[in-house]
Design a protein that fits this description.
The protein contains eight helices and ten strands. By secondary structure, it is an alpha+beta fold. The protein folds into two domains: 73 residues, Nuclear Transport Factor 2, Chain: A (Roll); 175 residues, no CATH class. The strands form three sheets. A four-stranded antiparallel sheet has the order 1-2-3-4, with helices on both faces. Strand 6, helix 5 and strand 7 form a beta-alpha-beta unit. The radius of gyration is 27 Å and the shape is elongated. The N and C termini lie far apart (66 Å).
Length: 282
């Protein structure tokens, strides 16, 4: 009798374990049945709402982060027409991202940024680039038009709604008016003079490479030890420093002024955080 009870208990435990594993796996990667249902829902959604488009479903995958199946949609004739259709575990359509990604200009903005970053990376990753930089990239600042009234948008920013779907954009031409470099450099010397020297050299290097930019954020810090600790404390930073301001006459003074503005900005940010912390504790 005791052995029979133990066998039954072991059987129940095994069944519970299998069910638990299935539930866990279902929550993590979904299951073939619900995936098939989700795929069918996504296909019907395309037929009913985008019959005039040549959209195709590339793949359908389950995301454990939001608990939805994501149908990845693309157009063979439109490089910027990519979006997701989200369907829940029971096959109910939740929403698609066509307006957010395609109509808003988000995909076009991502494509342009990727192309510009790749162009800048060729310069920074070249063996001829003489500086030790642990952060370095080029980018554009994109904002939706509604943010123009809500936030302090830089004058060199691009508005996503002004972009044209699938249009060709010369990223160098855009770079001259809107491009932003961000570079963090480690060196044995940290001073206004050294930063001035580096900026002048960066301008020359990028000019020689035919890669254009409008502003640069650059941070100069001391080189680090093998354990990543700093050899010395010290930092010079320029924020949104104009390409047109990078020339020898008065360069050190402009760098010093920009560094002071950057330090004042961070001091203000720290003060606001302390105030929020203090107010939140009341």
């Amino acid at each position: 009798m005791k052995k029979r009870i133990l066998k039954i208990a072991a059987f129940v435990f095994a069944i519970a374990l299998i069910v638990g594993v299935c539930v866990f796996a279902n929550a993590l990667v979904g299951n073939p049945i619900s995936k098939a249902v989700a795929t069918n829902t996504a296909e019907k959604h395309l037929e009913e709402n985008y019959a005039d488009k040549d959209f195709e479903i590339e793949r359908v995958t389950f995301s454990f982060k939001d608990g939805y199946y994501h149908a990845f949609v693309y157009s063979p004739s439109s490089i910027d027409s990519k979006f997701n259709i989200l369907v829940d575990m029971w096959g109910k359509l939740r929403y698609d991202t066509y307006e957010d990604r395609v109509l808003s200009g988000g995909n076009t903005a991502d494509r342009i940024s990727k192309d510009y970053r790749a162009t800048v990376d060729k310069v920074l990753d070249s063996q001829a680039f003489p500086y030790i930089e642990h952060i370095g990239y080029g980018d554009f600042d994109f904002y939706p038009r509604v943010h123009l009234e809500q936030y302090s948008v830089p004058e060199y920013a691009l508005i996503t709604e002004d972009l044209t779907l699938d249009a060709f954009y010369d990223v160098n031409e855009l770079g001259a008016k809107h491009g932003k470099l961000t570079i963090y450099i480690d060196d044995d010397t940290v001073s206004y003079e050294k930063m001035s020297e580096i900026l002048l050299d960066i301008r020359r290097i990028f000019d020689d490479a035919g890669v254009k930019f409008y502003v640069i954020d650059c941070v100069l810090e001391y080189q680090k030890n093998e354990d990543s600790s700093k050899k010395k404390e010290g930092r010079v930073e320029v924020r949104e420093f104009l390409y047109s301001d990078i020339y020898e006459d008065g360069m050190v003074e402009r760098v010093k002024a920009s560094d002071e503005v950057a330090k004042a900005y961070y001091d203000e940010q720290d003060a606001e955080k302390l105030k929020e912390k203090y107010d939140g504790g009341k």
